[in-house]
Write a structure and sequence with these properties.
Elements: E1 4-7, E2 15-20, E3 26-30, E4 68-71, E5 78-81, E6 120-124, E7 144-145, E8 157-160, E9 164-169, H1 183-201, E10 208-215, E11 227-233, H2 238-254, H3 258-269, E12 273-276, E13 280-283, E14 292-298, H4 310-327, E15 343-348, E16 363-368, E17 370-372, E18 375-376, H5 381-386, H6 395-405
Antiparallel strand pairs: 1-2, 2-3, 3-6, 4-5, 4-8, 6-9, 7-8, 9-11, 10-11, 10-15, 12-13, 13-14, 14-16, 15-16, 17-18
Helix pairs in contact: 1-4
Length: 407
């Protein structure tokens, strides 16, 4: 297995070491930047001893088949059919978590990380919803009409779900959380996000890169180890398509950027602005949907994570940790103790390939399904059935509470 180690590449402060797992998936270690007095780091373990077959090997003599996706004729949305994920790992015991590093002296059987320790590590998901298979045609001509002859053509469209799914482990400490990590580690995580956005965005099948974290069992997390994910979609997601449609109409009418105008309007109004730093603004959006929701946007117009400067990445680490700490104090249990907030955090970035790319702007959205201690917001009839959102509170109330608990 080959490996490459680089220091300070693609805007990173620390080092980056890439290798391949036994079945051919890529794995990349990202190390925190060394500070004065730190000892040099030993080389990472790169060899994966598991007897895994090549992930693209034939199955029962038949060529490997990657996941497929179908277009909903009523909405135009593409829906990947990831049936193999039904058998993915679900809430394993702490001593069998596949995201933990290899235990010193223990047999390495089914863990995904060969080394006994790491700062941040990224690897291709073993159970991906999206996967590009070598030799498969992934262009527009790969979209096929599977309608019966009696049905008008173009009604039922099917295509390879030719993307990529990666896991980003934030720490080798199984009991940690992103909120418990220091600024130096969060900066390394930002560097990893930017690196993977650039790498996956350059793949010929990618139209959009989505970086996100699911935190908390209420969200549906299947592995409690601190981690996030990166998806490279072969299509624009519905939310991004809606945003670009609105941004295009706004630009045509005003000549300005919709997302720039939204940030400026929030700053001018001020009521929903939660935190301001030199490079970042945290605010509750004017039409917030979730019981708890906050957005973080750079002051400077930036299209995507790779476009952030060193100073912006450093400042984000400070600002984001303050926001996460406030979110964990948002709700209080009957005994007066804070309630750890389950959340989803996702980066909205300009699409990798679209003539409207310049209308995008980087933004992190953080929101929670918790509407009170022990109470969840269920997406029932109106939200799920009609995609018609109804809020349980007001953005101003959310912002007021976040200001109260912000350290």
């Amino acid at each position: 297995m080959s490996a490459t180690t680089q220091t300070g590449t693609t805007g990173t402060k620390g080092s980056r070491t890439a290798t391949r797992l036994a079945d051919g998936r890529e794995l990349v270690y990202f190390d925190d930047a060394l500070e004065p007095g730190d000892a040099p780091r030993p080389p990472h373990e790169l060899h994966d001893p598991r007897p895994l077959p090549d992930r693209f090997a034939p199955v029962d003599g038949a060529p490997f088949q990657g996941p497929r996706m179908r277009r909903d004729p009523l909405t135009g949305d593409w829906i990947p059919m990831a049936t193999h994920r039904m058998n993915r790992t679900l809430l394993p015991p702490d001593d069998a978590c596949p995201l933990c590093p290899r235990r010193p002296g223990a047999d390495y059987t089914d863990g995904e990380v060969p080394d006994t320790a790491y700062d941040v590590v990224v690897f291709e998901n073993r159970f991906p919803s999206l996967l590009s298979v070598p030799g498969e045609d992934h262009g527009p001509e790969s979209v096929v009409d599977v309608s019966p002859a009696a049905v008008p053509g173009g009604l039922w469209l099917d295509a390879p779900a030719a993307g990529r799914c990666e896991v980003v482990c934030f720490s080798s400490d199984h009991d940690a959380s992103l909120a418990s990590l220091g600024e130096r580690r969060v900066r390394t995580i930002v560097d990893a996000w930017a690196d993977r956005t650039a790498a996956l965005g350059s793949l010929p099948t990618t139209r959009e890169v989505f970086v996100f974290e699911n935190h908390g069992r209420e969200i549906g997390v299947t592995l409690t180890h601190p981690h996030g994910q990166v998806y490279a979609y072969p299509y624009l997601t519905p939310r991004t398509e809606q945003l670009l449609t609105q941004a295009s109409a706004h630009h045509e009418a005003t000549g300005r950027s919709l997302l720039r105008d939204v940030l400026d309007a929030e700053l001018a109004d001020g009521r929903r602005v939660v935190l301001e730093t030199e490079h970042w603004v945290a605010y509750v959006p004017f039409a917030a949907r979730w019981p708890v929701e906050v957005h973080l946007a750079p002051r400077r117009d930036v299209l995507d994570l790779p476009g952030l400067t060193d100073a912006e990445r450093d400042d984000f680490a400070t600002a984001y940790l303050r926001v996460l700490a406030a979110l964990d104090r948002f709700f209080v249990a009957p005994d007066g103790s804070p309630v750890a907030l389950p959340y989803i955090a996702g980066w909205s970035q300009a699409p990798a390939r679209d003539p409207r790319r310049e209308l995008g702007r980087l933004r992190l959205e953080v929101f929670s399904v918790l509407r009170g201690p022990g109470k969840l917001k269920y997406l029932a009839g109106s939200e799920s059935g009609a995609s018609a959102w109804i809020s349980d509170t007001t953005p101003e109330r959310i912002a007021t509470r976040l200001k109260e608990v912000l350290a």
